[in-house]
Specification:
Elements: E1 12-14, E2 32-37, E3 52-55, E4 74-81, E5 84-89, E6 95-99, E7 103-105, E8 115-116, H1 121-128, E9 138-142, E10 150-154, E11 160-163, E12 208-216, E13 220-227, E14 231-238, H2 245-255, E15 266-270, E16 277-281, E17 286-287, H3 288-293, H4 295-298, H5 302-321, E18 334-336, E19 342-344, H6 373-378, H7 383-398, H8 410-418, H9 431-440, H10 451-471
Parallel strand pairs: 2-11, 8-9
Antiparallel strand pairs: 1-11, 2-10, 3-4, 3-7, 4-5, 5-6, 9-10, 12-13, 13-14, 14-16, 15-16, 17-18, 18-19
Helix pairs in contact: 5-7, 5-10, 7-9
Length: about 475
């Protein structure tokens, strides 16, 4: 989708968009620059019998069958199965299991500190703009548009541009040579989460130490906890009688197969006796609702709010693709990481809540203000009713966590929706953002957009808004 080199010169085009009229100079001062790497760099050849890896991080064995190693040490992989591989440490000959996301195959780009495998351009932006990365920090990642090619990025706190030809730059750490910024240091990469313990699905209640109560929801509490004295997790404790254990396990077995960067990972359960525990990955910033209301959250600029919305749309687009339904999409069920990555939580959980508790009636725990009219009136939950809820979630985001339909009771909301009422555009909300909400609130479910469409619109809107916002004095 991008132009190529002409007479050895770089040809410029804005990232993520179709080619625009070519300009032969560098981008506007202060741009972040993304370029394609030579394809040969991303296609290393290695024989199966020489499957050697190098450690990217230190790892201290947690279980007797694990293998400890230090960053930079070499190992030979003996068995590959899931997230844990059996390997031999070459320096000692010791064997054991290792987390596969802590190592990389030798003689590949993955061993380089500046290479980030499998991350999107949007996540690259988040990493580069995270605290600790100086201007000029850079990375190379896989191209999203062309298999076998890479993209590289430089952080300079400005809009994103792309260099598209196979054009090699030399000595960029010493001179900018036409770049927006001289390269300084590789982007700081957060240490990845260790894979969950092998075969640990139904775990003993005694293996969990509940340490800090993070919040209380309609059907239970959420705690920060430690599993087996070494792994920080989040634990949702369900109120006794709120759900059938059999129905929950059936749904949980589906939920744990849904793996995506924008979905909270379900690790394990405790169901042998009540209360049921649901163990998930721990997210440092807590719920999006609480974050938006916090001092830090209220300082987030408009582009960041739009970014939150696009991340959630990305996760819901995956759920949509998997023919699954969330049923309770709102800011309270979105969790936020230290890097401000949003992940969808509690997907599918509403389906197994006891019907007497989860019904649309005044005074009930049913989230009426987020629920589509056809779901309120007829119990018809579909991905399109999730789209309606997403529109309400957008209103939560743009108002920094304000309760939807302020000042209205549940029954007043139901009657107002029947008359065709929709929440007005709040002060300071871009018209384009509000139009996304209004499309989500179409009366006929089939007229509402897909999450894939919402994701595309919001990502493009984020890029446009980020550029306009950062160019302002």
């Amino acid at each position: 989708p991008f132009p190529t080199t002409e007479q050895g010169r770089a040809v410029w085009a804005p990232a993520r968009h179709q080619p625009v009229p070519r300009a032969e100079g560098p981008p506007a001062p202060g741009a972040r620059w993304i370029a394609e790497a030579a394809p040969s760099f991303l296609s290393p050849s290695a024989r199966p019998e020489d499957f050697l890896v190098v450690a990217l991080y230190d790892y201290d064995a947690i279980h007797a069958e694990d293998l400890s190693f230090q960053k930079g040490e070499h190992l030979k992989v003996l068995e590959r199965s899931g997230e844990w591989w059996k390997a031999r440490l070459l320096s000692t000959g010791n064997e054991g299991y290792i987390p596969n996301n802590y190592v990389a195959r030798v003689n590949t780009l993955e061993t380089e500190e500046w290479f980030f495998k499998g991350i999107s351009r949007k996540d690259a932006d988040r990493y580069l703009l995270a605290p600790g990365n100086a201007i000029g920090s850079f990375m190379i990642r896989d191209s999203e548009t062309t298999q076998g090619r890479g993209s590289w990025a430089i952080s300079n706190k400005r809009p994103v541009f792309a260099v598209c030809p196979e054009y090699l730059f030399c000595s960029l750490s010493g001179q900018s040579d036409g770049l927006c910024q001289t390269l300084t240091f590789p982007c700081i990469a957060p240490k990845p989460q260790q894979p969950w313990e092998k075969d640990a699905w139904e775990i003993p209640r005694s293996s969990l130490k509940l340490e800090q109560k993070l919040g209380a929801g309609q059907f239970g509490e959420v705690w920060m906890a430690t599993y087996n004295t070494h792994t920080k997790v989040a634990v949702k404790t369900m109120k006794p009688g709120s759900m059938s254990v059999e129905a929950f396990l059936e749904e949980a077995n589906i939920m744990k197969t849904l793996q995506h960067d924008k979905l909270v990972k379900l690790h394990a359960v405790v169901t042998k006796e009540e209360p049921i525990y649901i163990i998930t990955e721990f997210m440092e910033k807590g719920s999006l609702l609480d974050f938006l209301k916090s001092d830090e959250g209220r300082k987030q600029p408009l582009p960041r709010l739009i970014d939150f919305a696009s991340q959630i749309a990305e996760g819901m687009a995956f759920i949509e693709q998997q023919n699954y339904i969330h049923r309770d999409l709102r800011a309270a069920n979105i969790l936020v990481s230290g890097l401000l990555v949003c992940k969808i939580a509690d997907f599918g959980l509403a389906r197994v809540i006891d019907d007497n508790e989860y019904t649309a009636r005044e005074g009930s725990k049913f989230p009426i203000k987020w629920t589509a009219p056809e779901a309120i009136n007829y119990g018809s939950f579909t991905i399109k009713s999730d789209v309606w809820s997403f529109g309400v979630l957008l209103m939560e985001i743009i108002t920094y966590g304000r309760t939807p339909y302020p000042g209205m009771s549940h029954m007043e909301v139901i009657r107002a929706l029947e008359r065709g009422y929709r929440m007005p555009c709040p002060e300071g909300c871009p018209r384009e953002f509000y139009e996304v909400m209004m499309r989500c609130w179409e009366k006929q479910p089939e007229n509402r957009p897909t999450f894939e469409s919402n994701q595309s619109i919001l990502e493009d809107f984020f890029i446009a808004t980020e550029g306009q916002y950062q160019q302002q004095p």
